[in-house]
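Hello Y.,

Per our agreement to keep a running log of every chain we model this quarter, I'm adding this entry. I've kept the format consistent with earlier entries: sequence first, then predicted structure.
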Amino acid sequence: MNRDPLTGFRLGALLATHLGGGRIITARLDDTPMEQHGQQLLEAGLTMAGAAVTDAGVLPLATLRFLIREMNAAGAVAVDGSRWIVCGGTGRVLPPVELDLLLRIGIPGMTGPEQWVEPRPESRGFSLHLRKIMAAVDGEAIRRRQLRVAWCGEGAAVVRRLPELLRKCGADAVAVPDAGAMAAAICDGRCDFGVGMDRRSSAVRLWDDRGRLIPAGHSLAMMLDHILEAFPETLVVTAPTGRFADRLAADAGCDIRRGGDGESGLLDAMQNAGSSLGGDGPSGMLIWRRIQPVPDAFAAVAILLELSALSGAAISEIADQTGGESSV
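Predicted structure for the entry above:
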């Protein structure tokens, strides 16, 4: 949804009621003046409608969604350029059509008491997020491997939190300014592999040790194969996901369910199947409830680090063993 000053204030006032009151966390995905101003307008509307607002500053969307449950908040709002991303109490993103409907309803009576905006927990919040991720992987094995990983800082400021995760895993983090320079940086820097992510921190991008960009479905297959080997369970994938998922489930002796499209469709299908593991082939998006029940690109990076460390093989070799692009 595009933003203008009046709409930002109105949306904040409406969300305070729509999300059921209580605590609402706000954040922005980048640190531009436009996003800073947009966050201030949202917070003004939220506080005028009686919500208790926690300003998380600049924070990855995956971390913001993690904090909703960690802080027992009613929901969260992230400013993303000229748009808003609204998450309910479960971490689910509200569809844009639902936000449009809210704005047509009008501003409810703003009779609640004004609340102060609490100091931002961005550093602590991301540390808690990383702690949750590291509890789900073999951190010691990753640190022993002493991997050298190139990371792409292209996109929002939140993407530049990647080195914090890499350093926590004992990896040598090699900064690369944009995706176009990744292949040369990996080969010249003798990196084990390279990673990047979308600005919403929903899906990871993977380059192997030869500098090749691994297709989204292929990198998802590598992660799913690794998880299923240790934690076999029903695998849930979206309808457009390739047939590689059936092969992975069969190899692990697990059932597979398909349904829906995109994040919302995948979450519904996972809930119906009672499964904690799901993925979307076209985007490479992975959801593993062992870490959190929404997409998390930082978690995906940690899983790839663990895969590389425990296998002892090059990412290019693992990719070839998992199956070629044609099988994905």
